[in-house]
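re: that chain from earlier
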Amino acid sequence: MQLRPRQVEFRDKCVAALGEHGNTLGVAPTGAGKTVMFSAVVGAIGGRWLVIQHRDELVSQNRKTFWMVNPNVPHDLYTAGRKRWEKRGATFGMIQTLAQNLEDIPELDGIAIDEAHHVASPSYRKVIAAAKAANSKVAIFGVTATANRGDKKGLVGIFDNVADQIPIRDLILEGHLVRPRTFVIDVGTQGALSGVKQTAGDFNMDQVAQIMDHAPLNEKIVEEWKKHAGDRRTVVFCSTIEHANHVCMAFLAGGVSAETVDGKMGERDRRAVLARFDRGEIQVIVNVAVLTEGWDCQPVSCVVLLRPSSYKSTMVQMIGRGLRKIDPERYPGIRKDDCVVLDFGTSVLMHGTIDQDVDLDQKGAKDCPECHATIPAQARDCPICGYHFPDPEAVTAPGAGASPPKKRGELADFVLTEVDLLDASPYRWEDLFTNMPGVVTMADAMKAWACVIAYGGRFIALGYVQPVKDTEGGIIAPEQWRLLADSDTRILALQSADDFLREHGDSDTARKSRTWMSQPPSEKQALHLGLPAGGMNFGITRYRATCLLTWKFKEREIRRRVEATRQRALAA
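^ sequence. v structure.
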């Protein structure tokens, strides 16, 4: 697997910080590829590592990604069903099983913790203490999307520095996440909400419900939702269970299919509701503090906030549920190019947009005055303790009035970002038809190729993996076709195609810096392309000839798949 440039930077910073401090935290939002990056860090350092997860599904998911990043590093499991310690590589363990078998923890070189904001819990601290008892110099490495905790001191004592923090804005501009379109809607409650008290680090949700949970108000919320996002799969965040039930009833009364999930539901019932939502049998899912973390459903393209959040990290988590791109193979016919955020509370007004979590103009590192951790200079909030650094524009001279808030980027530089993406790609992307620029763009990575086709006002990305043959020509693995994207934004389609090649392509032979790519076409290529004899190739390189021949031989199937994609979308 070929890492993206930003993932390489993240890996290198974390490796350096572990060498200097013996511990470090890396912060990256959903879509950044946290599993890929922490796998790359473990593989780069080497030795005997324990990788800790808190959910069963994460163990198999993380182990598979680790193998793709580090195919030559051995790995095993320490879970309820299998307790085997890998002596030379990585062991993937469940925190619950580890905490109950502390005496089994051997001497380790490092511990990698997924969802590291959970590290403050007693079970994690017991496991870390046991590992340090076996080896006082064991490295502690954590990755998380939202480090800040309500108790403000949750991560202090485990981590004393943050190696890197990737802002959501970067992932949106680079095409890894869709853009949020935020609407703040005052239904006459903002004044009352601003007076709600905080308890246990967050707003008093009973008081919030007293303000927000009224039948006329719930009806107005459904009316506004229909106006801004009536055809979108939606997740709604409420203050209390009773509030959620009433909001759900309002959607049902408005003719919208909706159900609720909450923490008091049984696991089986909750999974059943989520499965119905994932299949599209429900359009709106209303929840209370259940879907904030660890749940990703790609078709969600609208997030409704009916509760304020005192911590920006909570707001970012809620909005982040709708920023995932669609895998069109998994959800055929579903299109998604942005996410509508409807804030009926005060979160966006309080915290600003989600691209404000870092100051993009600052570089280097600084010390947090609250917990003294070393953190990236661009961080506005300390990921270790949650301390908020004063905004530069809020600092005024004595007696002067406060400066108005500085307007953030509008995420409009997609053309420039597209150029940067193609420059940063390890593969060379070719426009196949010079008389129709951008209609068909292709990159061939030998083991796989991908193309982006402009058709019917959309950009459709297709990927292909070559069949694997044995030495006698027998098929070990058949060819694979993949629909990678169906988007109205070219950058999203290109990024999906480039990620596909990074996973399946030959990152060595097909690297765009290879000299063979600029050589003239071979005789066989010239013959198939109908180029005249005598070396006249009209500027066609061997690599461009490879792409043109791929198009020539696969054009009929490509066109069939593109048309089928369009018909599925029209039918949906």
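The first strand starts at residue 23 and ends at 27.
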